[in-house]
Write a structure and sequence with these properties.
homodimer, alpha/beta, 16% strand, 8-stranded parallel barrel, 3-stranded antiparallel beta sheet
C-alpha cells in the first residue's frame, strides 16, 4: 500500500509520544494532528478555503449522516467526498457505529451520546445497551434520527458505504458500548467487534481490488480497539486487532502463493470509547503500548486541550472532536487563559482581538466587540468567525505540541500551557 | 469636496442611461452598480473577502439597526464601520427613516415593510401612516423592534449617528410613506421631508468640519426625493432637493464671503419609495430628468433583475436590495432562465453547477446536488454558497449592463436577458 506511509520523525524519551507524518493520496498529515469534523460533508459555517487557511490538514466526515442524507450513492455520483465537498486534502470517515448507537437508536430519548442504561428506553439494562438498536451477530438495525425509518448496517455494508464515500482513511465497523456497561457486556461487545473487524478487513480488500481496477485512489483501513475501561479487555483487543490479517481465501493475492503481508492487516488503529474521562489516559496507554509503533493511532471523538497532551504522551497521533465548532456556535471561545463567553456584556466594548497573539483570520481582522455584536444580532457570520478561531486554536495547539516533541520541550510546553489554561 | 467625484463615461442615446465611475475615499464604484446590503455590519453568512471576490464594490449598512445594536458609539469606538466590519471598500448608510416606519413602528403588527393602513394598528388611516411611529415637525419617536424601548430620530441625530458610523456615503433623514397614502398626505410628508433635508444638510456640514479637523475621511450626503407616485409631487421634490443649499449662517465658509458652492449642496440623490411596482419606472424617469446630470442617483431598496434595466434606462446609477441574499437563504437561486428552488427533488442528483457559465465561487466548485444537500441538512454553508451566487448574479448583471452601455449594446442586451429570464 504505497499510497500510505507513516514516518516517525521523533520520539519522546520518557513516554509514548511521537511526532511523525502520515502520507495519504491526498496529501500529508503531520502528526500529532487535530482532525476537523465535517459531519455532513461540510465543516459547519466554514468554506473549505477557510478550513485550509486556519491550518487544518485533514477532515473527518460521518458515515451514518452521509448514508442517510444525501446517501452515499449521491456522494459517489459526485465523484466522492473530495469533489462533493470541495476539500482536496485528506479525508476520513468513521464507521457509522458510534452514531448508530447514539444518534440513530437513542435519538430523542434520555440516552446521551454515550448511551446510558435509562430504564424508560432501554430494556437491556444489565448490558447497559439501549434496545432501540437491535444488535445481532450479523450487524445492527437502527432507526434514522431524521424520519424514524429503519436501516441496517453490517461490517460489509459499512465498508461498501465508506468505499462509495471515497475518503482516504476509513474505519472498521464496531459496536460502541456505554461506560456504564458491565464487564461481561463489554467482553461480549468486544468479541463481536473483533469478528466485525475481521469481516470489515476482508470486505475492504475485496473493495480495494475493485477500486484498483477502476484506477481510483486506494483507501486505508483503521481497525478499532474496544474493551471499555478494563485493562485485560483493552490489551486483548489491541493484540487481536494488531495481529488481525485478511482471511486468506478472501484474497486473490494470497491465492497467488506470494508471501506479501503488506496491506493485509490494518493500516492504522482507532481507539474507541467507552471510558470515563478519568480512565482515558490509562486506556490509551495500555492500548498504544501493544499496537505496532509504525502505524498511526487515532483517539476517536476526543478532545479538549488537556486531552491532546494526555493522548499524545500516551502514544496517540490523531484526534477529532466536534467540541471546538459546537461551543463556538454558542459564543464560547478558546483562549490560552481558558474559555471565554463572547456574549458576556464586558466584551461589547472590547476593541481587542480574542487573543492578541493569535494568528487566525478572526483575530487578525475582528474585535471582541464585533464578534459579540454578531452573536447578539444572531448573525451567521458570528459562527464562522468563532469556529475559525476555535478550530485554529486546537489545530495550532496540536501543531505546537508536535514542534515541542521535535524540539524536546514537550514537558515544559505542556506544563506551561495547562497551568495557564486550567486556572 | 475633492474626496468624491462622479465621472460619466458614456450616455445612452435614446434614454437617460449612463455609465460612470463614482470615486470615494475608500475606492471607486463603477456605475451602474448593485450595492450589497450588510444590514447589521455584516453581509449575512459571508466574509468580506467572499463579498469582494464575488465582485461587489460597495456595501450598504442600516443606520436604524446599528443605532439599536451595537450602538453607533461602539462602531465609532472601533474606528468606524470600515474597520468594525473589516470592509475597506466604499460603504453607505441609509438614513434610518425607512426602518423607523417599517420595522420600528410597525414591527410584529400586520403592517408590512411598506406600511399599510391596517385599522388594528394604525389610527391615521386617512394618511395611510401607522400611528406607532409618532411624527412631529422635529422628528419621529419610535419603538425598538428588539425590546420595545422608545427612541427618537431627528434629522440632526440621523446625521450624528451616520457621522459616527463613518460610512463614505450617507443619506438625509426622510419620511417614508405608504403607496396607499392619499395625495394630501404624500404632500404633507414630502414637505416635511424637504424641511428635514435642509436640517440634515446643515447638520452634515457642521459635522464634516469637525471630521476635517480630526483628519477623518470626508463623507458625501445624498438628499432623498419623495412624492409617492404623483408626477407633480415627484418633480417638485426633485427640483427642491436639487436646488437645496446649506443655510448660509450655518457655514463658516459662507461667512468668509467666498463664493464656493461645492459641497454646500447634496453630493448625490436617493429616490425613495413609495410607489407601486408599475409606477416605478415613470417615477424614476420624472425625477432623474430634473436631477443634475453630474451627480449619482440611488434607487433605494430596489431591485429585481428587470428593475435594474428599468432603473438604468431611467437614469439610475446605484441600486441596493436585500432580496438576493434573503431568497438565497430560502434556497431560491437566480439563473439566466429565471429563479430555481434548489431544494426541489430533481436537483438532489444534479451534478452540474447552478449555472454552467457562471464565474462565481459557488458555480466553480459546487454542484446543485451538494447545495441541495446542504439545504436539506440545514447546514449554514448552504446560505453562504447560495448568497454568493445570487449576489454575484445581481452584481455581474449590473456590470454587464454597464458594459453594454459603453459598447452601445444596451437595448439588445436588455431584450435578450429579459426574454430568457422572464419566461
Amino acid at each position: 500500500m504505497s499510497d500510505f506511509n507513516f514516518k516517525i520523525e521523533k520520539k519522546l524519551p520518557n513516554n509514548l509520544g511521537r511526532a511523525g507524518t502520515y502520507s495519504t493520496p491526498h496529501g500529508d498529515i503531520p502528526t500529532p494532528a487535530f482532525v476537523t469534523v465535517g459531519t455532513k460533508a461540510t465543516i459547519k459555517s466554514l468554506s473549505p478555503e477557510q478550513v485550509k487557511k486556519l491550518g487544518a490538514d485533514v477532515v473527518l466526515a460521518n458515515t451514518y449522516h452521509l448514508y442517510l442524507q444525501p446517501g452515499h450513492k449521491i456522494v459517489q455520483g459526485a465523484g466522492g467526498l473530495h469533489s462533493f465537498m470541495n476539500w482536496n486534502g485528506p479525508i476520513m470517515t468513521d464507521s457509522g457505529g458510534f452514531q448508530v448507537f447514539s444518534l440513530g437508536a437513542a435519538f430523542g430519548s434520555n440516552v446521551s451520546k454515550i448511551a446510558s442504561d435509562t430504564d424508560e428506553v432501554c430494556t437491556d439494562t444489565e448490558g447497559g445497551h439501549c434496545k432501540l438498536a437491535t444488535i445481532d451477530e450479523e450487524g445492527v438495525t437502527f432507526k434514522s434520527h431524521i424520519d424514524g425509518s429503519s436501516h441496517r448496517f453490517t461490517p460489509e455494508s459499512s465498508m461498501q458505504i465508506q468505499e462509495a464515500l471515497g475518503a482516504d482513511i476509513i474505519f472498521a465497523f464496531d459496536e460502541c458500548t456505554s461506560p456504564q456497561a458491565s464487564e461481561a457486556y463489554q467482553r461480549e461487545a468486544m468479541d463481536r467487534t473483533h469478528r466485525w473487524a475481521q469481516r470489515s478487513l476482508d470486505e475492504f480488500h475485496t473493495l480495494q481490488e475493485i477500486r484498483n481496477k477502476k484506477n481510483l485512489p486506494q483507501q486505508a483501513l483503521f481497525g478499532i480497539v474496544q474493551g471499555g475501561r478494563h485493562k485485560n479487555l483493552r490489551e486483548e483487543s489491541a493484540r487481536i486487532i494488531k495481529e488481525m490479517r485478511i482471511t486468506s481465501n478472501n484474497s486473490s493475492r494470497a491465492e497467488s502463493g506470494k508471501v506479501d503481508t503488506s496491506g493485509r492487516e490494518f493500516d492504522g488503529f482507532g481507539i474507541g470509547g467507552s471510558f470515563n474521562k478519568e480512565d482515558m489516559y490509562s486506556v490509551v496507554g495500555w492500548v498504544n503500548k501493544i499496537l505496532p509503533e509504525d502505524k498511526p493511532r487515532h483517539l476517536l471523538g476526543i478532545g479538549e486541550p488537556a486531552d491532546i497532551f494526555g493522548g499524545v504522551e500516551n502514544g496517540t497521533d490523531l484526534f477529532d472532536c466536534v467540541a471546538p465548532t459546537r461551543v463556538a456556535r454558542n459564543g464560547q471561545l478558546h483562549t490560552k487563559d481558558g474559555k471565554i463567553n463572547i456574549t458576556n456584556a464586558k466584551f461589547s466594548k472590547d476593541f481587542s482581538p480574542i487573543e492578541s497573539d493569535c494568528e487566525c483570520y478572526t483575530c487578525k481582522h475582528y474585535t471582541r466587540a464585533y464578534i459579540s455584536h454578531l452573536f447578539r444580532a444572531k448573525e451567521m457570520f458570528a459562527s464562522t468567525l468563532a469556529s475559525i478561531h476555535n478550530l485554529h486554536f486546537m489545530v495550532q495547539l496540536t501543531k505546537d505540541i508536535r514542534s515541542s516533541i521535535i524540539e524536546n520541550t514537550f514537558d515544559t510546553f505542556k506544563e506551561e500551557f495547562l497551568r495557564k489554561y486550567i486556572k
